[in-house]
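Lecture notes, part 5. Sequence design as translation. It can be helpful to think of inverse folding as translation between two languages: the language of shapes and the language of residues. The source text, in structure tokens, appears below.
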């Protein structure tokens, strides 16, 4: 079965009319008019096609071809500010297109497919992120929703209420896991690995874990002219050592990235030896042991530099997300699908978070297909994938989903 590539592309154009920008990008922040309208479009579109459609209390859109539980295909329709046309939207239109073509072709498993559109994946407005999939995983309390506000004080619970949903009842979403046999998602890669490999699509083996640290260094502020090398307690040096070691570790470790993304000299000036510095460290890998090893090496470099420079060092882990490997039965179905389609599909971890990460932790069997991103650009109006590549990704999704659905 081949999906209808022209219809897929039309759906993408249709949904991207909501929140479209003159720059060529789109902006549909969660629970804004444009994002609500895009989800409304999706629900209407599914109803028109005769699918069985409803919303849960988190505002997630559900649509079924027939029986439940079903193999659910989906993504999200919210975007970052000044975002692109593919992140999220491609997964939704691929899901819709798969359901329609499968039903038209009456291939085995067509009536065990569903579509799932999650709300607030990006987490830009309310500082939560993956809110819809967390609700489905049973990993969010009404308290957290009640406390979530935008920077200007708009409450998420009010936005939900205005759209007819009850934040107090968000716990009810978790019972919908009974409708989900597995969750599969097509998403743009948002990196350059597929482009480098010269292939249209790839299979995601898992979503990396991450570790965030805050580094604080206390040295001694002093005159930059009169304080000689031996007399200095320069607080920036341990931060610099951490940044350099992060690069060394990353270059030496396959599938790991490490970044000192914020570094600041407190009350710094051109003519002052830094007296106090702070920085952050972000380390990601699919292998948690590699994360721990990288942390140790980077912190050891900072510690050595702190001792050599008479500085005090404080390092605190501020966030830890465990890696989320994709489910073996789904990976097997995707590999078999690649073989059915006679395409060469590389396997790779996802370096960014997705709803599939949250759902895996909620014991849903998940899998993802990546589609080549031109120049690796995402979260930008310049985000682009060719129609050919999107069709290749959707066909891999469809073939894998039907293999799973036919076995139900
Ligand atoms: Zn996304």
């Amino acid at each position: 079965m081949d999906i209808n590539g022209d219809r897929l592309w039309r759906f993408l154009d249709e949904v991207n009319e909501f929140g479209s920008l003159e720059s060529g990008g789109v902006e549909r922040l969660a629970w804004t008019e444009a994002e609500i309208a895009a989800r409304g479009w999706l629900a209407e579109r599914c109803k028109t096609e005769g699918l069985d459609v409803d919303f849960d209390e988190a505002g997630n859109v559900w649509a079924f071809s027939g029986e439940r539980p079903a193999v659910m295909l989906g993504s999200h329709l919210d975007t970052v500010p000044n975002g692109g046309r593919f992140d999220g939207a491609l997964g939704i239109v691929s899901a819709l297109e798969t359901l329609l073509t499968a039903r038209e072709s009456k291939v085995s498993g067509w009536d065990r497919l569903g579509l799932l559109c999650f709300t607030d994946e990006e987490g830009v407005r309310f500082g939560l992120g993956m809110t819809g999939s967390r609700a489905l995983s049973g990993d969010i309390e009404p308290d957290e929703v009640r406390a979530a506000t935008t920077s200007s004080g708009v409450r998420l619970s009010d936005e939900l209420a205005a759209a007819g949903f009850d934040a107090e009842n968000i716990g009810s979403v978790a019972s919908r896991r009974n409708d989900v046999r597995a969750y599969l998602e097509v998403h743009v890669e948002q990196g350059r690995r597929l482009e480098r490999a010269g292939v249209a699509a790839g299979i995601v083996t898992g979503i990396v874990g991450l570790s965030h640290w805050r580094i604080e260094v206390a040295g001694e502020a002093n005159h930059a002219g009169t304080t000689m090398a031996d007399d200095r307690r320069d607080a920036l040096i341990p931060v610099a050592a951490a940044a350099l070691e992060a690069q060394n570790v990353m270059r030496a470790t396959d599938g790991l990235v490490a970044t000192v993304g914020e570094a600041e000299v407190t009350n710094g000036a051109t003519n002052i030896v830094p007296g106090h510095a702070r920085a952050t460290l972000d380390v990601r890998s699919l292998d948690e042991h590699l994360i721990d090893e990288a942390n140790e090496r980077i912190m050891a470099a900072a510690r050595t530099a702190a001792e050599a420079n008479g500085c005090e060092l404080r390092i605190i882990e501020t966030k830890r997300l465990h890696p989320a490997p994709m489910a073996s039965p789904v990976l097997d179905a995707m590999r078999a699908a690649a073989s059915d389609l006679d395409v060469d599909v590389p396997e790779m971890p996802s370096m960014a978070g997705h709803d599939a990460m949250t759902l895996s932790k909620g014991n849903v069997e998940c899998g993802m297909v990546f589609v080549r991103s031109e120049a690796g650009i995402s979260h930008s109006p310049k985000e682009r994938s060719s129609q050919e590549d999107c069709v290749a990704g959707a066909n891999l999704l469809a073939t894998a989903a039907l293999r799973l659905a036919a076995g139900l």
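The translated text above is only one of many valid answers, since several sequences can fold into similar shapes. Residues 141 and 192 are 37 Å apart (CA to CA).
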